[in-house]
Design brief:
With about 600 residues, the chain is an alpha/beta fold. It has 2 domains: about 10-330, ABC transporter type 1, transmembrane domain (ABC transporter transmembrane region fold, Up-down Bundle); about 355-585, Rossmann fold (3-Layer(aba) Sandwich), CATH 3.40.50.300. About 65% of the residues lie in helices and about 10% in strands. The strands form 3 sheets. The protein has a 6-stranded mixed β-sheet, sandwiched between helices. The chain is elongated, with a radius of gyration of 35 Å. Bound molecules: adenosine-5'-triphosphate (ATP). It is a multi-pass membrane protein. Keywords: ATP-binding, Membrane, Nucleotide-binding, Transmembrane, Transmembrane helix.
Length: about 600
């Protein structure tokens, strides 16, 4: 089944499932923080309760002690209030400390979860998305969520608790006045529910444009040599300028949206205070209310509307976090379209590898390989030749299961290749890519990448392994041998040397099937002869698949396949292959 991996083109159904699946994942991620969350919750509820008791004590003090001039009682209550406010300060500090830790740990776990997910996703995913945008999701979007968790969530809960308490107090002290005082709050809730989706959309657009800008930067940094060589700085500057402008205007849009809540909330809170004051004075004048109660009442109205005003800012932070979370969840909810299938029984006396009526296209609407069938036997050398774009690399990628066929089956050792665990499969199949990829480190570290066999070898033992595998001659081509430094961009060494490292890496894994995709295209003829000797001396059972444009590299092949227009045909001898190339059915 063709799966869509382009994060910027997910269907509505995928979006919905991703929010749900990811929410479940988020809960799993913070489940072990239950104790800390509970303690923070207790601290914030204590804080709210203490703050809520304040106005009641003040009102009582005015009515009971101030109006009767019993100043001793006033002093005692002032002392109680001071103790309560100090305890409130302590609980507030506790919750900030606890939640800061929870937020940072969540950020850490979340980034790890996304990174692990990225490691499991198939090549299709990386073909469809830009690295810069993915980096922005891992760094920027997760941080938005962390900000909400560490700074806003508990305030959010605390404010809601204070508001609820203040609301109950308002209704309890004077029911009718309470209804008047709370009426503007209902309008605020209505306004919030109408405007919130728009605010979230504005923030999502802004985060997307931050991702877009990051992708532009990454592309131009990756291609800086071509940009300088072709003097295309202006072109990239223009592209970056456009991405930056887009980011600027979406940031302004998001800023405007984010700031819409505060003034509206402030306006309605002021109206509420005015209403309470006017109605309260009227009630006092008709003897239905006391001054002390009005003071308490005004304080409770403040305790109801101040958190509401703060909720405006917190709600914005929540909307930003949710927009970030959507972008994170899109990645977390993706599943690899290369699952390991169960129950495959090996066919007896099977070839090492077999393509059975295989069809494949990178996209659903464009088939690249059409109904291909061939077998590769153990210990033989095969060559794939054919014009550029004919489908050689695609065939090799299917052999290594970088992709699955859209129809047909590929059998490895008589079993569906999809039934192998990835570790088992990569042990059996070595693939030297057209563009070798190196990691920052030494030649030794790069050769040992993904190979645990020699991890505990001393330098001497490892050098012996290299000699036994006939790789000593290649290593001599590096200035400091195994310790030669390599950077991930590979700029400190030549392209040919990069290919040699990839070659040694693959050979040392001792695979049953070794695929070389133009793996010797950038080395001189003498080194190429060296590589060819090493290939000849590989263990007898090793099968080799060589893709090459230089026909001398495939002279010794046992069988040659001609790959053109997505069809693979037996070429017979080298002369036949040359004839086919010359008459060349070109790529359609
Ligand atoms: N990632 C991809 N997404 C979509 N189409 C692709 C992708 N990679 C290759 N193709 C298309 O598949 C076809 C076969 O490409 P492939 O790389 O297999 O050819 P090739 O024979 O290896 O060419 P070369 O000799 O240049 O390496 C080409 O038409 C190419 O445009």
């Amino acid at each position: 089944m063709q799966m869509n991996y382009d994060l910027n083109k997910l269907s509505e159904k995928q979006e919905k499932t991703s929010t749900y699946t990811a929410l479940k994942k988020l809960i799993q991620l913070i489940a072990h923080e239950r104790k800390n969350l509970l303690m923070a919750l207790m601290a914030i509820l204590t804080n709210s309760t203490l703050n809520l008791l304040g106005p009641l004590i003040i009102g009582l003090t005015i009515d009971k002690y101030v109006q009767t001039k019993q100043y001793h009682g006033v002093l005692i209550n002032a002392g109680i209030l001071l103790a309560m406010y100090t305890a409130a300060l302590g609980s507030s500090y506790m919750q900030t400390k606890l939640m800061g830790g929870v937020g940072q740990r969540m950020l850490f776990t979340l980034r790890n979860a996304i990174f692990n997910k990225l490691q499991q996703l198939p090549v299709d995913f990386f073909n469809s998305n830009k690295a810069g945008d993915l980096i922005s999701r891992v760094n920027n979007d997760t941080d938005k969520l962390n900000q909400f968790f560490s700074q806003s969530l508990m305030q959010f809960i605390g404010n809601i608790a204070t508001m609820t308490g203040a609301g109950i107090a308002l209704l309890f002290i004077h029911y009718k006045l309470g209804v008047v005082a709370l009426a503007p709050g209902v309008l605020i809730l209505l306004f919030t529910s109408v405007v919130s989706p728009w605010v979230k959309r504005k923030n999502a657009t802004n985060l997307k444009s931050v991702g877009g800008m990051s992708a532009e930067i990454q592309e131009s940094l990756n291609n800086f040599k071509v940009i300088i060589a072709f003097n295309r700085r202006d072109y990239f500057r223009k592209r970056f300028d456009e991405a930056n402008k887009d980011n600027y205007s979406t940031a302004i849009g998001a800023g405007l949206a984010n700031n819409i809540f505060l003034p509206v909330y402030s306006f309605f809170s002021s109206i509420a205070q005015l209403l309470v004051l006017a109605c309260g004075i009227y009630l006092i004048s008709i003897g239905d209310f006391s001054i002390g109660l009005l003071v308490s009442y005004l304080s409770y109205a403040t305790l109801f509307y101040n958190p509401l005003r703060q909720l405006a800012a917190l709600w914005t932070s929540f909307q930003v976090a949710m927009a970030g979370w959507d972008r994170i969840s899109q990645i977390l909810s993706l599943e690899s379209n290369l699952p390991t299938v169960q129950n495959a029984l090996a066919e007896p006396e099977a070839s090492l590898l077999e393509f059975r009526n295989v069809h494949f296209g990178y996209t659903a609407d464009h088939e690249i390989l059409h109904n291909i069938s061939f077998k590769l036997e153990r210990g033989k050398t095969y060559a794939l030749v054919g014009p550029t774009g004919g489908g050689k690399t695609t065939t090799a990628s299917l052999i290594a299961r970088l992709y699955d066929p859209s129809r047909g089956t590929i059998l490895l050792d008589g079993k569906d290749i999809r039934s192998y665990d990835p570790l088992e499969r990569t042990k059996k199949i070595g693939f030297i890519l057209q563009e070798p990829f190196l990691f920052t480190g030494t030649v030794k570290e790069n050769i040992l990448y993904g190979n645990e066999l020699y991890l505990n070898h001393t330098s001497e033992q490892f050098e012996q392994v290299i000699t036994d595998a006939n790789l000593g001659g290649l290593l001599a081509l590096f200035e400091s041998g195994l310790e030669t430094k390599v950077s991930s961009s590979g700029d400190s060494i030549s392209l040919g040397q990069k290919q040699l490292i990839a070659f040694m890496r693959a050979v040392l894994r001792n695979p049953d099937l070794l695929i070389l995709d133009e793996a010797t295209a950038n080395v001189d003829t003498i080194t190429e002869k060296l590589l060819s000797d090493i290939l000849d001396k590989l263990p007898q059972h090793t099968t080799r698949v060589i893709i090459a444009h230089r026909l001398n590299t495939i002279e010794n092949a046992d069988e040659i396949f001609f790959v053109n227009s997505g069809e693979v045909t037996r070429a017979g001898s080298l002369d036949d292959a040359v004839n086919m190339l010359l008459q060349g059915k070109r790529v359609s």
